[in-house]
Amino acid sequence: MTRSSEIRPDLDEGIDRKVLAQLRSRFLALSQGRLLRANEGLSTRQQSVLALLPLFFHVNHPLLPGYVSGSTPAGVSHYEPDGQALAEAQRLTRSFSYKPRRGNAPQPIHGIFLMGSLGTLAQTDQSDMDVWICHDPYLSAEDVQELRKKCQALESWAASMGAEAHFFLVDPQRFVAGERDAQLSGEDCGTTQHFLLLDEFYRTAIWLAGRTPMWWLVPVYEETRYAEYTHTLLSKRFIRADEVLDLGNMSLIPPGEFIGAGLWQLFKGIESPYKSVLKLLLTEVYASEHPEVQCLSMRFKQAVFTCQADLDELDPYVMVYRRIEEYLLARGEPERLELVRRSLYLKVNKKLTGAARHRTTGWQRALLERLVSEWKWDERQLALLDSRSQWKVRQVASERRAVVGELNLSYRFLIQFARAHKAGTSINKRDLSVLGRRLYAAFERKAGKVEFLNPGIAPDLAEDTLTLAQLPNKREPGKYQWCLYNGNLSAYELETFAPIKRCRELLELLTWCHRNTVIDTSTHLALHPGISDLTEFELFNLQGALQQTIALPLGVVEEDVLLSPSVPREILLLVNVGVDPLRHHKDLNILMTTERTDSLSYAGVRENLVLTFDQITLNSWNEVLVNRFDGPYALLDCLTELLNGLEATATKPVIRVRSFCHNRAPAIAQRVEELIGTAQLLLARRLNHRYLIQVEQRYHVLEMMPGHISHVALEHLPALYAYLGEELSTYSPIHLDPQALDDSDLSLLIPYGHPECVQVFYRINEPHADLYVLDEHNSLWHQRVDYHDEPSLLVPLRRFFQSLMYRRVALLPLDNPPGSMSLETLYYRITPDGSGRARRVEHRPPPTVLIDNSFFDVQAIIEEASPGQVSVTLYCDGMEFSELEYGDQLFSVVARRILEQRREAQRYRCYITDLDLSGILGDTHGQTILFLRYKAQLEDSLNAAMDQM
Fold first, then answer.
1. Which segments constitute the Adenylate cyclase class-I N-terminal domain (predicted)?
2. What is the percentage of the chain residues whose pLDDT exceeds 70?
């Protein structure tokens, strides 16, 4: 077209009504051209739907689809059905007869427009119809509700005709004011994208019936004074008000709209990146020009005004592409431009190679061929894109890098734009934060996380045949790795092929395959287990366990969830993967029969059958994590990490424990399940629990302090006694695993622990006796002493406790309630006597302390002499003996004094009956275990000195 065809209506020079009519005709002709293109891609029944829609909103007839009631608003401005529409209506309902509406009848439907990809380069058989129904702003709420019901009924009717239709009611006045239903946006990020939605409407909408947009008649150069210009048109009667509808103009676009649009497209791009890349880049183009944005709708209008209305060049998708192409070429970013081109080609989905090229050439194919020719793509590149439905891991992994790179680049652009233009409202900041976490969860690599390979790049990554093999790791001598290969390979062929994927551990590889659907139910998997004990039976069950725990496809994570730290949602614990815990018995041809079936202490040799753990976690952000535990502390390391994860969340995950190893798999899984169940119950009580577990001859304690769980490993029984005898700041109950310490007195007395109580246990095993004390904080004191009789064993201990309680009470302020510091002391006897297995604990009354001269007191005072050094003063029958006077001979002198005072010639043990530690403790009263420890040390020194005499 020549420049002489340009229309420039000018207010100052006068506006010709014919010129305005000519402008309207140009827009309508363009719209009609698009409608014809849309119908080319529709079936006969779908064409019928499109042709009948204006009639159904014009006539409210009970025989026609969409009828709701006699009061439903009907009547489309300036519409009269043509012969085609009436013929289609009579084919549906033969008894229908159209009667023209009276001239003064209301026409509350002002305009009907078709949105979406119909009539564009990207139209496909699956394209839906998005229809805007612009209605009279003064309709009552009841009338609008009637219209909404009619729209819903018409959607159902369209579906029965094979067409997917969506209707959106638009009140022009509310729309101009920025008020509209969120559903109008279809899939936008709420209601904040007013101008970008309007831009899309003006450049893509196909007019079906009713009034035409006022915006069509306003030249681009008059856009800044749109209100004045349109007022003049109406007030001077250049146009009639009932001929146009006004949805507003493309004035300054607020920067927040670019952020909202980018956020939403990035959100959609995580699952379907090719569909979002074009809109993401267009948003970036607009935002980069802010505030002088050259909207595509303005270019579209300018082309119509200058009579350059080429249907191909004004195709909505071609316009978007051209705009992005200008931008990226100017920036010198050819890689991003190539991704945009691939995205457009795949969006159009018209194959230009293979059998498809011999089909009848339609306008879409011709236009796409012209674009591809401009891009200078060769047959190889086209064939690769046309085979997208067959893309597998290698091609998808390569494409993923470009796609994820673009999404991350767009996210960083949005953040910088928000900062630069101070467009970060509280809503935008929240949305940006949520989106950042979505991108992180979907694409960020981190240790243990299974990479999500296919964010909508290819439809299916499943392979028909794969080979799974364990092979030596050449880079780490002595180490092995698991490799996955295409096809069914023999052991000799493995060296000559490159694996699709390699991992150190089997479950990491299997979980990767499952998360990315590389293996499905039809995949044949050949196995070369290497040095592992993996069997096909176990492999099959491992895959089943993964499918149960990580059910695909994963749902969309809600925003509220992303605003909180991720927490475990599903946990799968797999025990002894590829490991036979009794393999050495099989190698030695040993058949084991035993009554000791505990998986942590199996048979007479107390063998641990719980050797390795693979933990697969699906968290609240849909991240899949794999962690492996092996080595001597695998069980406790796994429990510690698992419980710390549970401690951090109020919502407890589903935990499954499975084992499919060759020997005792069900018993092993059940044993681990019991341990986890018990630990969870203890954790819920939040009482500083200590969970004592025995594995072989070792002892392990899970310390469950609120907010933190730790693991203490104790190599033997003496180490356990030492641990149990440590001072504690508060009462800490001990939960004993039922299978632990089954041959020790501790198994009977540990469950008796109780706060604010001192409990004495004794067991006679002549010529010795074992004394145990559980104090008020549940610390354990143990001492083996010579046994004479029960009074001589227990009375000195009771006298000691009486003295201790007396001192504590004496130090209390006068206003303390009586008994506030007194601790009840209970006595128990462990039976039977002797060194056999303890069976019972019997409560005994406290020993009677007689007031006579057969016993005399041995008191001790310990105080700090210098930093790190203490001095001891002993009082024997009232006489003082101090280290200041006797030095290292103190205990010998006191021992001699005691022997001199005794009436019997028989030697028996000497006991401390009173101990003062105020010189060390200061104002604190000290835990009973501390007094018992000093008492035992002093008694050992005295009795050792006595034995030398």
1. 20-216
2. 93
> How many of the other CB atoms lie within 10 Å of CB of 294?
14
Residue 466 within any structural domain of the chain: no
Let me know: does 288 contact 421? Beta carbons within 8 Å.
no
What would you measure as the largest C-alpha separation in the chain, in angstroms?
139
Q: Check whether 515 has a pLDDT greater than 50.
A: yes
Residues 629 and 699 in one domain: yes
Q: Of 301, 365, 407, 395, which Cα lies nearest the Cα of 30?
A: 301
- Residue 259 resides in a domain: no
Instruction: Count CB atoms within 10 A of the CB of residue 790.
Output: 15
- Is the confidence at residue 826, as pLDDT, over 90? yes
In a domain, 212, yes or no: yes
Burial 523-542 (b: 16+ CB within 10 A, else e): eebebbbbebbbbeebbebb
pLDDT given at position 905: 60
Question: Do 732 and 781 sit in the same domain of this protein?
Answer: no
**242 and 94 together in one domain:** yes
Mean pLDDT of 269-274: 90
User: If DSSP codes are grouped into helix, strand and coil, which group holds residue 874?
Assistant: strand
Same domain, 866 and 807: yes
Of the residues 736, 765, 793, which one is the last residue of a structural domain? 736
Q: Over the stretch 425-439, which tens digit does the pLDDT of each residue have?
A: 656 778 888 889 999
Query: Cα(268)–Cα(274) distance, rounded to whole angstroms?
Result: 10
- Does residue 525 fall inside a structural domain? no
Q: How many domains are there within the chain?
A: 4
pLDDT of residue 140: 96
Query: What is the rounded average pLDDT for all residues in the chain?
Result: 90
Q: What are phi and psi of 875, to 5 degrees?
A: -120, 115
**Nearest in space to 675 (alpha carbons), one of 570, 601, 596, 566:** 601
pLDDT in tens, 86-95: 999 988 888 8
Least trusted range by pLDDT, from 24-28, 566-570, 712-716, 922-926: 922-926
Residues constituting the chain: 949
Cα 783 from Cα 770, distance rounded (Å): 6
Q: Using alpha carbons, select from 334, 377, 374 the residue that is nearest to residue 352.
A: 377
Q: Are residues 25 and 89 in the same domain?
A: yes
- Joined tokens for residue 529: 């287990």
pLDDT tens for 14-23 read 678 888 999 9
Classify strands 480-486 and 465-472 as parallel, antiparallel or unpaired: antiparallel
Sheet bearing 858-866, strands edge to edge:
879-882, 869-876, 858-866, 914-917
Q: Mark whether 321 and 398 lie in a shared domain.
A: yes
* Domain match, 159 and 81 both: yes
- Kindly state whether residues 732 and 765 are assigned to the same domain: no
Q: Of 401, 426, 443, which residue constitutes the final position of a domain? A: 443
**pTM for this model (two decimals):** 0.85
Given a contact cutoff of 8 angstroms between Cβ atoms, the answer to whether 509 and 503 are in contact is yes
Structure token digits, residue 637: 């390391």
List the beta bridge partners of residue 769. 764, 785
Q: What is the domain range of residue 43?
A: 3-251
- What the block records as the tokens of 592 is 């084991």
Distance set, CA 706 to CA 683, 734, 755 (Å): 8, 15, 18
